[in-house]
Amino acid sequence: MNRLRVAVVGASLGGLSVANVLHRLDIEVAVFEYFPSSFHNRGGALGNVHIDLIQRIRGLSPNKMPPSISGHGHFYGDLWAYLYQGLPAQTVHFGADIREIIDPDSNQPGLRLDGSVQRFDLVIGADGGKSAVRAYVTDAQPSYSGYALWRGLAPVAGIAGPPSGSKTLQGFRYDTLGFPFVGAEGETFWNCGIYMAMPESDVAAPSRNRQVGSAALQTLPDWFQPFVTKMFGADNARFWRLCAERGKVSQHAVWEFSADRVVNKRIILLGDAAHMASPRTGAGAYTAMVDALVLAQCLTQALPAVTGKPCADWGNLSELLERYNSNTVKRGQELFIRSRQAAAYFAPLNRTIVAPEALLKVL
Fold first, then answer.
1. Are 214 and 201 in contact, with CB atoms under 8 Å apart?
2. Using one digit for the tens of pLDDT, what is the confidence trace for 91-150?
3. Radius of gyration of the chain (CA)
4. Domain carrying residue 93
5. CB-side exposure of 231: number of CA atoms within 13 Å?
6. 254: which DSSP letter?
7. How many angstroms separate the CA atoms of 242 and 106, rounded?
8. Looking at residue 224, which CATH number applies to its domain?
9. Is this prediction's pTM over 0.85?
C-alpha cells in the first residue's frame, strides 16, 4: 500500500485533532510544533465543549473519556493531553520552526527541517492566527475587531471571586465574568476575563498559539486598576490585583478572519489559520475540530482510489480537497458573521475607540 504522508504544522487542539483522525485512517502523520514543549499544563479553561465531537476524533467510547473533561469549564491542558495520547510516540516534534514550504505547487511539497527537506503528500497549516502556512494559500489576513479580552488566571485559594459586572460607557459595553476550573495538578483556578474596547495601537498582533503566545503581566498597567474600580467597583479591582500577583493577567486582542480559500493544491489550512473569531462565540476550538473531521471524511473517499498508486495518479484527491475547501470557507464565513455581531456589541462601528487610560478622565 502506498501510504499518504501528511505534515501538520501546529500542535494545539486543531493540529492534534486532525493528526488523530488521519492516524486512524492509517495515514502517516508528522506534527511540527514551534514551541519547545508540550501544552499539557498550559493555558486556562475552555468553555463548553462538544463531548461527542471529541469522542469521534479519538475514536473511543464514552467510558474512555477522562473524567476531567466535562461539558463546561475544563482545563485546556487536559483536552490537549487526551488528544496527544491518541497519537503514536514521536508523532509530535516540538521546537520545529516551520517558516518555509519548498515547492508548494508540487504534489510533494517539502518542509525545511534542520537543514534538510522532508517531502509530504499534504501539508496542513494548523499554526494559529499568525500562521506561516497561510501565505501559501491566500493573501487574506486577520483584522482587528476593536476590542480585547484581558484574561486572568489565578489560584482560587485566598482570592474571592469570580468578578462579574457590565457597564456601558459612551456607547461601548464592558463586561467582566469568570468561573473556576481544575488545573493540571488538581489545584482549582479562577478563569476570568474583561472585554474592553481598545485602539489597535494598544494591542498585540495575533500569536501562533493563543494558549501560550501572549505575554503574562505580573504588574498591571497603571490605568488598569483605577479603570476597573470606576467601571466595576473596588472588589473587582482587588481581584485583578491579586490575580496579577498570584497568577497571571494577559491581554488577548480579538482578531477576526475568514479565509477566501483554505486549500491550494496540496497545502491546507485548518483552525485559526483558516478562520478566527471572538472567544465570545465559544466556537474556536469546536470549529477547528470540525475542520479535522470534514477533512478526514474527504480523504476517506480518496483513500480507496489511491491505494497502491503513485501520487501522480491520485486524480480524485484534488476534487475531494475542493469539497473541504468549500465546506470550511462557508463555515468560516458563518463564524465571522457571529464574531462581527459580538464586535458590534463591544466596539460599535463608526465610533472612535478611546483607550481605557484616556477614559479615566471621563470617569
1. no
2. 999 999 898 999 999 999 999 987 789 999 999 999 999 999 999 999 999 999 999 999
3. 21
4. 5-141+257-343
5. 30
6. E
7. 54
8. 3.30.9
9. yes
